[in-house]
Amino acid sequence: MQKTLPRQTLRALNPPANVLEPYIFFEAVREHALQPLETALNLRNAWWLADAALLAYSNEADVRKAFGAAGITADISCFHGVHSTQAYVIAMPDAIVLAFRGTQVDDFWSSVLDFAVDARFLPAPTHTGTWCIPGFLPRLAKCGCRCRRI
Asked: Do 124 and 111 belong together in one domain?
């Protein structure tokens, strides 16, 4: 059975979800689980990843709540750049998903800041000799993680 789509409104184009239009992330995921080994076009995986991408617009608490409500057991790490970059990684037993938030246009100055960060898309070297997208670079420098060298 297909999932019923929310009403098509201009507000629905601008996440985070559940602000004005209710939305259930990963609805019926038990019957329609991610199929990470599938290599061909798979609409189930496309739906799953579209929900993951939409959820990236939400705050960390809502990301964790959505996965918990769907019954998806995983390790979740959320990342925030200094200005406006947001992403999260979810590590499940058979898959790892990295979801980035795109440009958010809910207010003028946030949009300008997002566009400015988007324009800096070339990787920059970190203090450890690895490469990173500039939006995450200041955050990475503080995390102390051991990133793989390129």
From this structure: no
